[in-house]
Structures are given as C-alpha cells and as structure tokens.
Amino acid sequence: MTNSTSSMDAEPQFQTYSSGGDKLLGRDPEALILVHRPGYAFAHEAPVWFADTQDVWFASNAGGKNGKSNLTTNNAIFRINLPHALPLAKNGTATFENSVETIYSPLVEGKAQFEDIQMTNGATSYGDAVLLCNTGRDDLPGSLVLVNRSDIGQKPKVLLNNAYGRDFVSPNDVVVHPKGAIFFTDADYGVLQNFKPPVAQAKATWRFVPTTGELRMIDATITTPNGIALSPDARTLYVTETGLARSGAGTDDYSIPAVIYAFDLDTTGSIVSNKRTFTNVPTGIADGIKTDSKGNVYTCTGGGLEVYAPRTGQPLYRFFLPTGCTQVVMVQDGRLLLLAEETIWYLRVASHVQPAPIASYPRSGRLQGY
Fold first, then answer.
1. d(CA 64, CA 149)
2. 7 Cα distance to chain centroid
3. Does residue 153 carry a pLDDT above 70?
4. Where are the alpha helices (DSSP H) in 145-226?
5. Record's superkingdom (predicted)?
6. Can you give the pLDDT at residue 5?
7. Of 121, 229, 237, 290, which residue is most buried, by most CB within 10 angstroms?
8. How far apart are CA 279 and CA 309, in angstroms?
9. Taking Cα atoms as reference points, which of 107, 199, 193, 112 lies closest to residue 161?
10. DSSP 3-state helix, strand, coil percentages of the chain (rounded to 5)?
11. Is the pLDDT of residue 3 over 50?
C-alpha cells in the first residue's frame, strides 16, 4: 500500500509542533536521499536494523505499483549497510547497484528463493534471526518464518502458516514481545491487489506463542489492521488502521478513520485490553509504525513521517515528504531510515534518540537455537 499526497511540488522539510518536538529534532536535523531508483518500488516495508552488522533489511512492494511482483512473481528482500551507503549518498555517487544488496529475489539469478517466503511485507528481529511476515501468493499461504542471517541460503523455519487449518487473509506486519509472544496483523491487500484468492478468514490482529503453538485472535474490530508496534515497556500495543486506503479496489473509503489504535498489555503480554484511539493522522493513513526508547510513536503517512507523544497522542514533529512514506526504522543515535517506495531517506535528529529495545527480544520464551 502506498501513501500519497497532492502537494507533489513541495520540498521535504521538518516541522515541529512543540518544545518536545524541538528536543527530538535537535539543533540541526539532517535529511538526505540515501538511495533512489526510479521506476522500481524497491523500498516498501519490513525494515529491520541490526546493530552488529550495521545493516537494515527491507522488502520491495508486494503487488503494488512498480513493485515488479504479482500473482506469478514474488517480491524481493534487500539489505543496505549504513557505513557503506551513507558516504556514497553524501558524495553524490550512490546508486541502487552500489548501495543495495539483494538477499532474495526472483529477478536476480542465483539468489535463493523459498516457497515459504512469499510477498514479505513485515519483519522484525528474533534473537539473532530475522522474523518475516509474509502475505503469501496464489496458493502459497501467508506465514511467519525465521531466517538465519548468517546463512541466508538455509531453509527458513516456518513458525505459522494457518489459523486452525484455514489460510490467513494477507499477513501484514509483526512485532515480538519480550516474553516471547508474537503479535501480527492480517489485512487483505493480497486479495485487493489480485495476487491472493479470497479465503474464509476475518481480517484481525493475532497473538502467537511459538514455543507452545498457542494462537489467539486478539481483535477483529479494526477494519484493516496494518502496522504494529510495542511501547518500550511492552505495556502498550499500537496498531494502525488502513481501511481507508482501498489499494487495488478503486475508491478509497473515507468513512473509515485514519487512526492509530492502542491496547493495554499485562506484564506477560498475554492479556490484551482497553482498545482506544491513540491519535488520528492528518494526511492519508498511518502505515508502518515504530517507537523510540522514550515511547514516542513514529509513523509513515501520506504526508511523510509523523511523531507523537506517548501519553497524549499529540504531534511532536513531522518530516514532510511530498511522496509520503510507507515505513520507518529506528537506527541508533538519532538516525532513522524512511522507506518511500523508489527512495530510502536518511534522517539524522538529536543523538539522544534511540530505538525501543526490540533488538533484544524475546528475552525469555525464545525458541531453542535462536
């Protein structure tokens, strides 16, 4: 799904709404294009930062415009090494070819392909591995799988690919709780974009415990659950509502609010309660979502990156992008990457801004060997 805005002639810029936003941005925030490839939506979703290698993994658009994927062709997974790519971007020599490494792609000869990894749209770290949330394609089911980062040719471990014997609709995004549970959203974009058939399943947000196999639908009231994130204390679960954007269906449905919902979690992550509207977004929809170590909420919208205060949902600052963006990933020491389809943006804000500690999850309840 792609955010859009009518202000295509406007320049990218930072805008603060409060002193809290000023503190997050710092005195001299920086924004530059890290890599751009016209005509290929290579930078869509599923970004994961790995501090040990200084890499960000991410996926191309699955089934959408310029994604080069459809009913018969899988999307691609890439990684970009920040210490390598950033100097190229700063000296003006960055290209897709010299900045981006292909991990899995049907378009590149010799790159491993697995039936269990189809139309990846969400991802997060799981110990030393990558946890992929796959929409599925044609008769290949949506799934949650683990990939060994040190051996990407190794067959991935499938954690889940059905709910009580029925396929999921279109698994979209995923987050891991520190106690081991996996929360993920199941939307319908594979069906809308004509690379998956309809199935006898509701769109919903799910909780799955891989060590026991316990699977539970925790909410089916959000029209189209999409992005998902945890607060740094793991007591709040955020889910974006993207039912307004009927990508592939023709007409957007403005009767559905462009909001982020919040849920309370108990200390174990097993009890989910108190669904409420956290905030609404001003342009398009809130798509991908992340939190920082202080609980501030970052989301990509039709207007670019929006940042909200955790207790009030009030806006702190915006990085306006005329194209909008689809997902954000927090890097250490005030660095962020924005995925904007044909472009990856690099932002540098105040150095005290750090990601939520999801890279260490799960701290308990972890599958053996990961």
1. 27
2. 24
3. yes
4. 189-192
5. Eukaryota
6. 39
7. 121
8. 10
9. 199
10. 10, 40, 50
11. no
Q: Could you give the CA distance from residue 102 to residue 124 in angstroms, rounded to a whole number?
A: 18
Whether 118 contacts 196, CB under 8 Å: no
Query: Helix or strand or coil: residue 366?
Result: coil
CA-based nearest residue to 43, from 238, 327, 336: 327
What average pLDDT does the segment 169-176 reach?
99
- In the chain, the amino acid numbered 49 is W
As a whole number of angstroms, the distance between CA 215 and CA 212 comes to 9
| Cβ burial, residue 52 (10 Å; 0-12/13-18/19+) | exposed
Domains in the chain, please, with CATH? 36-291 (2.120.10.30)
C-alpha 292/C-alpha 240 separation (Å) is: 17
Q: Is 119 helix (H, G, I), strand (E, B) or coil?
A: coil
Helix (H, G, I), strand (E, B) or coil at 190: helix
Q: Tell me the pLDDT tens digit for each residue of 284-320.
A: 999 999 999 999 999 999 999 999 999 999 999 999 9
Distance CA 76, CA 61 (A): 8
Residue 18's H or E segment, with its range, is none
Q: What is the pLDDT of residues 155-171, one digit of tens each?
A: 999 999 999 999 999 99
